[in-house]
Design brief:
Layout lengths: L2 H15 L2 H21 L8 E6 L5 H9 L3 E7 L19 E5 L36 E6 L14 H16 E12 L4 H13 L2 E5 L2 H4 L4 E7 L10 H17 L20 H48 L1
Parallel strand pairs: 1-2, 1-4, 2-3, 4-5
Antiparallel strand pairs: 5-7, 6-7
Length: 323
């Protein structure tokens, strides 16, 4: 018997027993990656594909990849269900080509050197060890979709930034030279997301932003798809950037007045580009990149407002007829 597979099948049965809301969410998220893939061709369908999916459960993105590429094999990391994470809905036949690891990615040993006096920290599992080494594990597609979950336990406000930084450390280290990174971000006009976009644009040969009309249309969220990672104009800085991110992870986890972590500021990312240079160097490029994101959000907000207005009129009419 395989305890890990037993756990997965138990979770899958529990997922199947849930009400329709989780299944609708699963189908919607598969549609999200389908939209991204149709816009960017980020999931090859014929050649062998190794992929890493951070924040993978309930498993919609992984299912989309494995369904569309029978030669794909992947590894995923997801918050344990007992800590508020999603159950896995990945079908049994796909699990033959996929390894699911339950962990909180923000509490892997991600600093420049191991930290011995924090029992919350875990060593990287074998599929994530030696990332970035010449003989280490590398992935041609990296999906970064971790986010705070409503039921997540032991969450503090600045963990949002720890999630972002942890994913960047793992994702940039895991991506094969010339590989693809797909990362969810929000509000491209703000300083911190803009600096991350600048980073991805300079490390890669091509950067595309896409806001799926499904599930994300009226929100600030969107996906950045970076292709040719490590081969961009500043690809040679990749190792240096990861080192700076590791130091920042330590500061966000143990800094602050009480030594329990702190918020991230735009200035923390000055090793990518200084805040005072961001507008002059990247504003025009950012506007071109984000134009379709804002257009999709505008249409989504219009539909939302129209729907709310229709609902309000219908409720007022029903109330007047009742009176």
């Amino acid at each position: 018997r395989n305890p890990k597979l037993d756990t997965h099948f138990r979770d899958q049965r529990a997922f199947a027993d849930q009400d329709g809301q989780e299944k609708v969410f699963f189908g919607g998220m598969m549609g999200v990656l389908q939209e991204i893939d149709q816009a960017t061709s980020c999931v090859p369908i014929t050649k062998p594909l190794s992929f890493l999916d951070l924040g993978c459960c309930p498993g919609a993105f992984t299912t989309y990849v494995l369904k569309n590429n029978y030669r794909a094999r992947g590894v995923g990391v997801s918050l344990p269900p007992e800590n508020g994470g999603h159950l896995s809905g990945i079908r049994e036949n796909y699990m033959k080509r996929f390894q699911l690891i339950y962990a909180n990615v923000t509490f892997y040993q991600l600093g420049p050197s191991p930290i011995a006096d924090d029992r919350r920290l875990q060593d990287l599992p074998i599929p994530l060890q030696c990332l970035g080494d010449d003989d280490g594990v590398r992935y041609s597609l990296v999906l970064l979709d971790c986010h705070h979950l409503r039921k997540q336990v032991d969450y503090v406000n600045w963990d949002y930034y720890r999630i972002v930084v942890s994913q960047l450390i793992l994702g940039l280290s895991a991506a094969r030279d010339g590989g693809t990174i797909v990362m969810k971000l929000s509000n491209p006009q703000r300083d911190i997301p803009a600096k991350i976009l600048y980073l991805l644009s300079t490390l890669s040969t091509r950067l595309v932003l896409h806001k799926p009309a499904r599930m994300h249309a009226n929100r600030g969220t969107f996906y950045a798809v970076a292709k040719g990672v490590g081969r961009g104009a500043e690809g040679s800085r990749l190792g240096e950037i990861v080192g700076e991110l590791r130091s920042l992870w330590v500061e966000l986890t143990y800094g602050g007045t009480e030594g329990t972590g702190r918020w991230m500021t735009s200035e923390d990312l000055n090793f990518i580009i200084k805040s005072e240079d961001l507008v002059d160097v990247f504003a025009d490029r950012l506007i071109k990149l984000a134009r379709s994101v804002w257009a999709t959000q505008l249409e989504g907000l219009k539909r939302l407002l129209a729907k709310n207005e229709h609902t309000s009129v219908t409720e007022e009419k029903a109330e007047s007829e009742h009176l």
